[in-house]
Design goal:
- Residues 1-25 form the signal peptide.
- Keywords: Signal.
- This protein has one helix at residues 2-44; strands at residues 50-51, 54-55, 59-60, 66-73, 80-87, 90-99, 105-110, 116-124, 127-128, 132-136.
- Helices cover 31% and strands 39% of the residues.
- Strand 5 and strand 6 (90-99) form a beta hairpin.
- It is α+β, with helices and mostly antiparallel strands and 137 residues long.
- The protein has one domain (1-137): Immunoglobulins (Immunoglobulin-like, Sandwich), CATH 2.60.40.
- The strands form two sheets. Strands 3, 5, 6, 8, 9 and 10 form a six-stranded mixed sheet that branches. Strands 1, 2, 4 and 7 form a four-stranded antiparallel sheet that branches.
- The longest helix has 43 residues, at 2-44.
Length: 137
């Protein structure tokens, strides 16, 4: 009886893990697709893609919440707007992502911990906003 019970638990655990993996894979695939597709469709049709970005503050304490608001033209609603930070010579995508609304606007809550002047921008595919700065004290 103990072997059967253990076997049933093992099968249930594998089933749950498999279901979670499928759901996560689908979520990642669907989350990545609109951003790339939105930019490439707009570029293929000759529509000019532009992104604006404006921080709610220019100086914050470390890990203090602030917002980056902006708009985009030439992108589909739901396109992922990603915050990037310049680290050395490279632009690094931060885990701060928000979808573009049906009105073509977005608002992104951000917390930064890297003290000093932070160069930031919003990207979607190959479309990039102008660089803006936020100083972290």
């Amino acid at each position: 009886m103990a072997i059967t019970k253990r076997h049933s638990l093992r099968i249930a655990a594998v089933g749950v893990i498999s279901a979670v993996s499928v759901v996560l894979a689908g979520t990642v695939a669907s989350a990545a697709t609109p951003a790339v597709a939105g930019a490439s469709v707009a570029q293929a049709t000759g529509v000019k893609v532009s992104i604006t970005a404006k921080p709610s503050v220019t100086s914050v304490k470390a890990w203090q919440l602030f917002r980056v608001n902006g708009s985009a033209t030439g992108l589909k609603a739901g396109s992922k707007m990603v915050l990037q930070q310049k680290q050395g010579k490279n632009w690094v995508s931060l885990p701060a992502v928000t979808p573009l609304s049906s009105k073509g606007t977005y608002s992104l809550g951000v917390k930064l911990g890297l003290k000093g002047k932070n160069e930031l921008r919003i990207v979607n595919g190959k479309a990039v906003s102008p660089v803006f700065n936020v100083t972290v004290r």
